[in-house]
């Protein structure tokens, strides 16, 4: 009998991950090999190095995931892999491996969109209500999914009909992703890569009202007029995060912060493995109050914009709930503000646990489960799709 055991494989960016998930809900293992230490000296992901690190890690990571779950390859019902979007060379490693494995085992192969994976990370840990274990309703109320990561800031209406999920893209960024803005601003202020976790950890020490940032509404409006049919022009939600990054740069330049930042950058370079959890005090000591205020104000502005526009869209589409996922969904202020607004509006909001917010393979295996039920399998010609849309 089919128990819905799926091995998921993820290699779209800078983590090699494999996980075994049962029935789309229960992660028996979720192994994540991070390449952060490899890329940190370069201040960002180096695609060529990423591909090579994936190639090095993929076999041991899968073996660890299988051993951790205590299942044999023969017990699997399917192999699922991230098809895209992501770095082409990085994706190819996971796709090639998963294809070969599925072929050798004689098991079905399931291709998963990375963004769909992020959305399913929220549903993965949810305990099913008895009614939900039955067949899903034909026309349920849609959910609004905000996927907010280093490469993406997207809003989707997600709907499940007889186990098949469909997604309608109703919002996106017109320039940088929110996580990209976190990373760039952290870099501007001399902090390590990836910057999001540093900003998250340091912002509580700053005064978020110190620097008033406002968003470039004009740019978003211009885009609305020029947008092709892909998004419905009147209804679509547009985010823009490149303007605030420039505003931070301008602030740094006009407030003579450059020397202080250069000193901090140099100090950070001597601690390449620094992590916010372990080294927060040391890094905080490197930060002057003005830098902390700037970080706090930046985070407050970005989070405020995400919350405001997402709830506005939720009202417009009359959704049943909001799902927030992707790396930036790990941010504490973002969780607090979304939770507070949800309580005020009486509309539920859900997040993945911290480990499932950033890239991982459990979310890929979880997203593959409905496809296993509906026999939506990948063909023999499956390849990496770097620019894949959802
Ligand atoms: O989902 P993810 O692991 O990879 C992509 O698909 O992009 O997201 C990584 C992004 C990075 O930009 C990182 O700085 C950001 O998520 N991030 C955070 C936090 N943790 C990760 N941003 C703000 N606060 C955090 N706690
Ligand atoms: Zn991601």
Automatic annotation (TrEMBL):
Gene3D superfamilies: 3.30.420.40. The keyword Acyltransferase applies. NCBIfam families: gcp_kae1, T6A_TsaD_YgjD. Required for the formation of a threonylcarbamoyl group on adenosine at position 37 (t(6)A37) in tRNAs that read codons beginning with adenine. Is involved in the transfer of the threonylcarbamoyl moiety of threonylcarbamoyl-AMP (TC-AMP) to the N6 group of A37, together with TsaE and TsaB. TsaD likely plays a direct catalytic role in this reaction. It is found in: Cytoplasm. Substrate binds at residues 147-151, 183, 196, 200, 331. GO terms for cellular component: cytoplasm. Residues 27-365 form the Gcp-like domain. Signal peptide: none annotated. Its EC number is 2.3.1.234. Fe cation binds at residues 114, 118, 359. Its main location: cytoplasm. Its cofactor is Fe(2+). One of its GO terms (molecular function) is tRNA N(6)-L-threonylcarbamoyladenine synthase activity. It catalyses: L-threonylcarbamoyladenylate + adenosine(37) in tRNA = N(6)-L-threonylcarbamoyladenosine(37) in tRNA + AMP + H(+). This is tRNA N6-adenosine threonylcarbamoyltransferase. GO terms for biological process: proteolysis; tRNA threonylcarbamoyladenosine modification. The gene is tsaD. Belongs to the KAE1 / TsaD family. SUPFAM superfamilies: Actin-like ATPase domain. Keywords: Acyltransferase, Cytoplasm, Hydrolase, Iron, Metal-binding, Protease, Transferase, tRNA processing. Binds 1 Fe(2+) ion per subunit.
